[in-house]
Amino acid sequence: MEKDADLSEFVRGQIVIARRLGTSITETARLVGCSRSTVVSIHAKWINDGDTSSRRQGVGRPCVIKEKERRRLSHLVKQNRRQTVAQLTAQYNAGPSASVLEHTVQRTLLDMGLCSRRPTRVPLLTKHHRQLRLQWAREHRDWTMDEWKRVAWSDESRFLIHHVDGRVRVRRLPGEQLLPSCTASHTQAGGLCFGGRSHGRLWDP
Fold first, then answer.
1. Residue 157 CB neighbour total at 10 angstroms
2. Where is this chain primarily localised (predicted)?
3. b/e burial code for range 184-200 (CB count within 10 A of at least 16 → b)
């Protein structure tokens, strides 16, 4: 049977959930393949400390990039969300802080929650476009279902003209996907493929 220190965080979470659901200590130990004492220890740690980590205070590799430098690294990311780890590392090392490796920067970014994601695709809208959309939404927010049934919905296929599709990535925190710096605008041009539908017939014969 596995020892307490050998269990993954996933298995530790399973133990906590099983105990919270009322599963007995013996049955929980059998399900995850550990001893009864390990189940008791992990569940007690979760109750007392609010987590199940086996890492002892002061154990492990020390953090190379301290809090002040982390804030600087976060600022560098927000200046240009599309920079690669190599580019961020070069910028960071050009500053007053001690030089670090790309691996250290990558690990720190992940620890800060700044993960590399595909940008959210949004229509290319001007400020005037956004104002018109908001005005339209406010004018129609109280419509009934019968009124919406009289609407014909349409869409056109997209033809990219501003840039070539590629593996563009942005580095952001959870919940930042709709920030302008984390989106990729697109337009429709060059051709048209129209489609439409409504609740009933689109037109009378």
1. 10
2. nucleus
3. bebebeeeeeeeeeeee
Q: pLDDT at position 126, please?
A: 80
Tokens representing 95 are 């500053």
Q: How many CB atoms lie within 10 A of CB 42?
A: 25
* Token pair 């001690």: residue: 98
Pairwise CA distance, residues 139 & 4, whole Å: 60
HEC secondary structure over the chain: CECHHHCCHHHHHHHHHHHHCCCCHHHHHHHHCECHHHHHHHHHHHHHHCCCCCCCCCCCCCCCCCHHHHHHHHHHHHHCCCCCHHHHHHHHHCCCCCCCCHHHHHHHHHHCCCEEECCEEEECCCHHHHHHHHHHHHHHCCCCHHHHHCCEEEEECCCCCCCCCCCCCEEECCCCCCCHHHEEEECCCCCCCEEEEECCCCCCC
Please state, in angstroms and rounded to a whole number, the distance separating the CA atoms of residues 185 and 93: 32
When pLDDT is cut at 50, 70 and 90, the band that residue 59 belongs to is: very low
Buried b (16+ CB within 10 A) or exposed e, 105-133: bebbbeebebeebebeeeeeeeeeeeeee
Residue 115 confidence (pLDDT): 84
- pTM more than 0.70: no
Q: Which of 9-13, 144-148, 182-186 has the lowest mean pLDDT?
A: 182-186
